[in-house]
Design brief:
By secondary structure, the chain is of the alpha/beta class. It has helices spanning 88-91, 104-120, 136-146, 175-192, 214-227, 239-249, 253-259, 288-295, 303-308, 316-322, 337-352, 360-373, 407-414, 441-457, 459-462, 469-472, and strands at residues 3-14, 17-29, 32-37, 46-49, 53-57, 59-64, 123-128, 149-152, 155-156, 159-163, 169-173, 200-202, 205-206, 231-235, 267-271, 298-301, 325-328, 391-395, 420-425, 428-432, 435-436. Strand 19 (420-425) and strand 20 (428-432) form a beta hairpin. The protein binds zinc ion.
Length: 484
């Protein structure tokens, strides 16, 4: 069946870049785009009216943790005065042996919520960089029913982070766990790569550059090459990690990863903020941006999350001009890719004190074309004949917006993930009228809220000082909870 999206502002891919057509049309059939641009002359079977909407390739959200991000609203608060804005509260560095993982049902509820939340924020392709703690079969079923395109693999590491009774973070080595984790991830990929009608694809996720040793990282990259899948690790994500790698390796995380052959065009680096280019690293030796550009690795930039920690990439524009492939991701809540475009652009301007940095064109490219490079996919992130029919329709004409001349600038300036009206993946409509087609949203939210509530309730059981969430992260005002 041939479907034509008509009447909207169409972002079509031509001559190596995006171009916009007012009152354009996108036609797709059997999951693939057959036409994108001006009016389509041939016959079609059905029409979708996109008047007043942007018709764009769905965004690629390169940083979602479907099982870990559930309780991360805590990350929005940075009143912790230790750990130098690392994520250890959400990493949940517990007293060793005290933390019980959430029950399977709770984990399933959280990941269902996180995936749907990310889809509603404009992502048609989701890179799950750290979810998938077991229960693979149901994960594949969930992807099938939600209709998203997902790259995933169980994350693994050989050093866990714990706190001692004085609250000091330490690494606890377990080389065997890392080796087993990689083997399990390879098994997962062999079993599930191409599941859910080809929308679920495998990737390897050695968790963090400092929690995986050199041998494990080398073996992981070798396995990724053999399996022909992308690989992701967190690197340059926080100062503790930067210092740890500097101490162990006598070079920066980026230089180290390059030297051991980990970086190439199929590698995604989560964050890549603390490099030789960042003043806080105080390490002006070498040039990590040149290394990133020369290896072809992608930096998955999550601007809003970092802004909450008073950290900015130094800078979006500088990375771009150095030739680094930039993609965007959200990491924490809200997983709103439309807002992320705005944050990326605004923070680029602030970081460089240059109002011409971080152009809408460049942030939009990062959220679409940039995210496809490490995936090795030239049929995603664009609307052109032969590309997969992964399309979002975003409402632009309403009173929260303003009259505009350029719909891309309007999207970046005024847009929100809540304006995503329709999402289509592989030709299947998965969000319609702003709501999930396959799931009861209120139920998904309620189950996730209960599951996350249970996670929060158990924090004193494993926190080094037995603190409650409210003690670790005080509310804005004295807060009288029901039943207090
Ligand atoms: Zn992450």
């Amino acid at each position: 069946m041939k479907t034509c999206i008509t009447g909207g502002w169409v972002v079509a891919f031509r001559n190596g870049g995006h171009e916009v057509f007012e009152g354009g049309e996108v036609v797709y059939e059997n999951g693939a785009v057959v036409h994108a641009g001006g009016a389509y002359a041939g016959p079609v079977d059905e029409r979708i009216d996109a008047t007043g909407m942007l018709v764009a390739p769905g965004f690629i959200n390169t940083h979602v943790h479907t099982s870990g991000n559930g309780g991360d609203t805590m990350l929005m608060d940075m009143l912790k005065n230790d750990y130098r804005t690392t994520n250890y509260m959400s990493f949940a560095a517990p007293i060793k042996g005290r933390q019980v993982p959430p029950a399977g049902e709770d984990m399933a509820a959280i990941r269902r919520f996180v995936l749907l939340h990310a889809m509603k924020g404009g992502a048609t392709t989701i890179i799950d960089v750290g979810g998938l703690r077991g229960d693979w079969e149901r994960y594949a079923e969930l992807i099938e029913s939600l209709g998203a395109r997902v790259y995933a693999g169980p994350s693994f590491r050989e050093r866990n982070t714990f706190t001692d009774p004085q609250g000091r973070i330490y690494y606890d080595s377990d080389t065997e766990a890392g080796r087993k984790g990689l083997a399990a991830a390879v098994d997962y990929i062999r079993a599930f790569n191409g599941a859910a009608g080809g929308r679920l694809r495998g990737m390897l996720n050695p968790a963090q550059v400092e929690t995986c040793g050199e041998a494990l990282l080398r073996d992981t990259k070798a396995a990724a090459r053999e399996l022909n899948v992308p690989v992701h690790t967190h690197a340059g994500g926080n100062l503790l990690e930067f210092a740890e790698i500097l101490r162990e390796q006598r070079r920066t995380p980026i230089q180290y990863l390059a030297d051991i052959g980990f970086l190439d065009a199929r590698t995604l680096i989560g964050h890549g903020v603390f490099t030789t280019a960042h003043p806080w690293s105080h390490y002006p030796f070498g040039d990590d941006l040149r290394v990133l550009a020369e290896t072809g690795a992608t930096v998955g930039h999550c601007p809003y999350k970092y802004a909450k920690m008073a950290i900015v990439l130094r800078s979006f524009q500088r990375y771009l001009e150095a030739g680094v492939t930039l993609a965007l991701g959200t990491d924490t809540f809200p997983m709103d890719m439309v807002s992320e475009l705005r944050w990326a652009g605004i923070l680029a301007k602030v970081a460089d004190e240059n109002y011409q940095a971080g152009q809408p064109r460049d942030t939009f490219n990062a959220a679409t074309l940039g995210g496809c490079v490490f995936l090795g996919r030239d049929d995603l992130g664009r609307l052109a004949p032969g590309a997969r029919a992964d399309i979002i329709l975003v409402r632009l004409d309403h009173l929260h917006s303003a009259p505009y001349r350029d719909p891309i600038k309007a999207l970046v300036d005024f847009g929100s993930g809540r304006d995503v009206d329709t999402a289509i993946v592989e030709g299947r409509t998965v969000i319609a009228g702003g709501h999930a087609v396959a799931l009861d949203e209120a139920q998904v939210y309620a189950h996730a809220r209960d599951a996350i509530g249970r996670f929060w309730q158990h924090v004193p059981d494993w926190h080094w000082a037995g603190a409650t969430v409210d003690q670790v992260i005080p509310p804005a005002y004295p807060l009288h909870r029901r039943g207090d």
